[in-house]
Amino acid sequence: MDSPIPEKNKTGWLEHLEAESWSAELIISGAAIYGALQLPWLLTKLIHYSLLNFSDDILEIMYLVFIYLTFAITILMVNFVMHFVLRSLWVGLIGLSSVFPQGINEESEAFSKSYIQQLKHDFGDLRGYNEKIDRLCSIIFAFSFSFAMIFLSIAVMVLTIAGIAYWIHQFNQQIPISMVFFSILSLVLLPGMLNGLLNHKKLREMAWVQKIHYPVLFKGVSRIMFHVFFEPVYYINSIFITNFKKRQYSLSVLTYMALVLPVFAGVFIQSHAIFANKDYYFKYANREDRFYPLHYEDQLGDNQLIQNPMIPSAQIEGSGLNLFLPLPMREETRLYQKYGAYPNDPQLSASENTLKSRAWFREQAGKYFHIEVNGKKYTPSLRGYNHRNAYEYGFLTFIPASLCKEGENVIYIRSEYQVDGKKRECYIPFWYSNR
């Protein structure tokens, strides 16, 4: 039988590993910064795909997923940059200690004795200051992964519940997906809220509470919520909670979130996740009194998804202009809700029915969009088109020069997409010259 490893040797190995961990942290942190900075791009691609291919019911749920994923990405970005900067500072201070091992020179005449003593009291010696930064770096490193895993776990849980809600909706389409989703989510979150309530000092020492608090509410429910991340998330957070005072830990988390929120807002806005919100999509860029860059192809930004009707430019010269009418899945769903689906003719072949359904869909699209040029209704010929920007599906049509006048013109588009009984409107002003 093998003899156990002496406790002294195990402790020495652990202390040696802790002492050398900074180099591994620095390498991992540097690589993680590079990787984390790529994540917003991947998130944007996921969001763009969702905006083009999901209906409002699904997007309402995906909006929550986007929020949690953005938080996870933001936390990784902020924490790894902070860790890299502080760990680099720590390495610099190690080098500085080899030059000035005593740290602040108490014999210096640069300040008064009282001033230097107060400096020494506040900052301590160089070794103590290094240890303070070292501890902070280690906390940040563990904290970043812990909180990122929390938000990622919640995002996965929300996606899973959304999948279950969608599956139930397929069996009975009279039941809205959102209603099923939030009902299941409430059932999942209820034990978690009960877990927090039973942790109150007046309740947690009761015998019946102790029988269910940890084994049922904590281990059982938390494993469902945090699944594969359960052990690292709860172990790391339990270390923090049991080693910091509750007030201190809560204030630290609130301060940290205040630091993260501005970065989160920037990433969230740039990713266009806000368009998953039905009200925002409905109201965005619907004012008649201003120009919006998103209505003009020559002002389209990098990684910007086309969500509104678009013309080539705000200044048009020549014989007319193209008009692109995007039709994401949320609008296509509304089109089918209003006009129904094409009824297949059993006397026709599959290919003939396909051709008929395409013609039918094009006809319904002509009804779905109401177009006016300078106040006069225009009924154009619409053709299906995938825009070269991000392959957005929609319809392309042409506005002839005969409808345009010298100077300022306005194209008005109203679709059957509705929120609170109001139809979505869009105004595209432009200057026209026939020269």
TrEMBL record:
Transmembrane helix recorded as keyword: yes
List keywords of the entry alphabetically: Membrane, Transmembrane, Transmembrane helix
User: Transmembrane among the record's keywords?
Assistant: yes
Q: Where are the transmembrane segments?
A: 21-41, 61-86, 136-169, 175-198, 249-269
**Descriptive protein name:** Uncharacterized protein
Q: Species name for this entry?
A: Haliscomenobacter hydrossis (strain ATCC 27775 / DSM 1100 / LMG 10767 / O)
